[in-house]
């Protein structure tokens, strides 16, 4: 009895030290599978693994850029193609590990589906009518978005800003339409190439909004014929280039800030939950140790 109690105390002490021990029981195969999956999950979510994948993505982007040079391809084209195939194999293995680690949850994550789609496109045969797929290999560089958290936050902010941007798009379309109709009526006869039709006026006004050669290329030639046309173009630029576009920027910045705050709140909540679980485990371990000590005390008496 004393030896059994001592063995029990030894097992309890090992548990309290957070070290796995085998106290005369055999681990079930399902537990071994779960342990393996947890280890793989820890691997694919570790910082070192993410750093390695980022390095591979950057290397792949560089090699694909070098393939656009005929001189480089003439010298080391075979080596670059070999590197490309090796990198593709690394991506496939990484996706298989992530699929094994996360199971069906892998297909519920939008970023995982994004990575899966890019790698799937790369695996398709780029021959015959599908030769255009070779040019899509550079899409692998976009995997940096799914790997780097800061880039994910930017995309998340842009997606979150889409509902708010809808009203701004409608406002801008209305402003463009009104000014395009006015420009077609006012300047269409003298400048049919720029304002002869409603479509031409819309395109010309879009060029003016981007401030690309708007003064010397469009407005000043119009002012040579219509000296007071600046009364039309200046308000248009103020309404579009400086007001409406700044509204776009403001909505995007606000959405990105909300995305960052939501992520910070989620991290704090996760830390709080983990802390509570750890405290519960510590209390349970203390109770087990007390019970084991009581058993040892009874055995000694």
TrEMBL record:
All copies of domain Ion transport, residue ranges: 47-262
Keywords recorded for this protein, A-Z: Membrane, Transmembrane, Transmembrane helix
First-listed, main subcellular location of the protein, grouped into a coarse class: membrane
Membrane topology: Multi-pass membrane protein
Entry's transmembrane regions: 78-101, 113-133, 154-180, 200-219, 231-253
Cell location: Membrane
Family annotation (InterPro entries): Ion_trans_dom, VGCC_Ca_Na, Volt_channel_dom_sf
Taxonomy, superkingdom: Bacteria
GO molecular function: voltage-gated sodium channel activity
Gene3D superfamilies for this protein: 1.10.287.70, Voltage-gated potassium channels. Chain C (1.20.120.350)
GO cellular component: voltage-gated sodium channel complex
PANTHER family linked to this entry: SODIUM CHANNEL PROTEIN 60E (PTHR10037:SF62), VOLTAGE-GATED CATION CHANNEL CALCIUM AND SODIUM (PTHR10037)
Protein name: Ion transport protein
Organism: Roseibium aggregatum (strain ATCC 25650 / DSM 13394 / JCM 20685 / NBRC 16684 / NCIMB 2208 / IAM 12614 / B1)
């Amino acid at each position: 009895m004393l030896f059994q109690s001592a063995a029990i105390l030894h097992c309890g002490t090992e548990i309290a030290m957070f070290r796995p021990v085998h106290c005369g029981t055999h681990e079930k195969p399902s537990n071994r599978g779960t342990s393996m999956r947890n280890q793989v999950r820890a691997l694919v979510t570790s910082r070192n693994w993410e750093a390695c994948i980022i390095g591979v993505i950057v290397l792949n982007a560089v090699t694909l850029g070098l393939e656009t040079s005929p001189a480089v391809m003439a010298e080391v084209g075979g080596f670059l193609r070999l590197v490309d195939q090796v990198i593709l194999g690394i991506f496939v293995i990484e996706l298989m590990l992530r699929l094994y680690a996360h199971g069906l949850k892998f297909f519920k994550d939008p970023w995982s589906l994004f990575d899966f789609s890019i790698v799937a496109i790369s695996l398709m045969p780029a021959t015959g009518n599908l030769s255009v797929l070779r040019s899509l290999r550079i899409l692998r560089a976009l995997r940096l978005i799914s790997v780097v958290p800061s880039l994910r936050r930017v995309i998340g902010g842009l997606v979150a800003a889409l509902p708010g941007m809808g009203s701004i798009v409608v406002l801008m379309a209305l402003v463009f339409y009104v000014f395009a109709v006015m420009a077609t009526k006012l300047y269409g006869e003298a400048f049919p190439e720029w304002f002869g039709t409603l479509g031409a006026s819309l395109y010309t006004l879009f060029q003016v909004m981007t401030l690309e050669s708007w003064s010397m290329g469009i407005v000043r030639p119009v002012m040579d014929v219509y000296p007071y046309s600046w009364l039309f173009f200046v308000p248009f630029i103020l309404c579009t280039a400086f007001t409406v576009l700044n509204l776009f920027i403001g909505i995007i910045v606000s959405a990105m800030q909300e995305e960052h705050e939501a992520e910070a709140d989620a991290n704090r909540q996760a830390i709080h939950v983990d802390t509570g679980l750890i405290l519960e485990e510590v209390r349970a371990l203390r109770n087990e140790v007390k019970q084991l000590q009581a058993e040892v005390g009874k055995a000694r008496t």
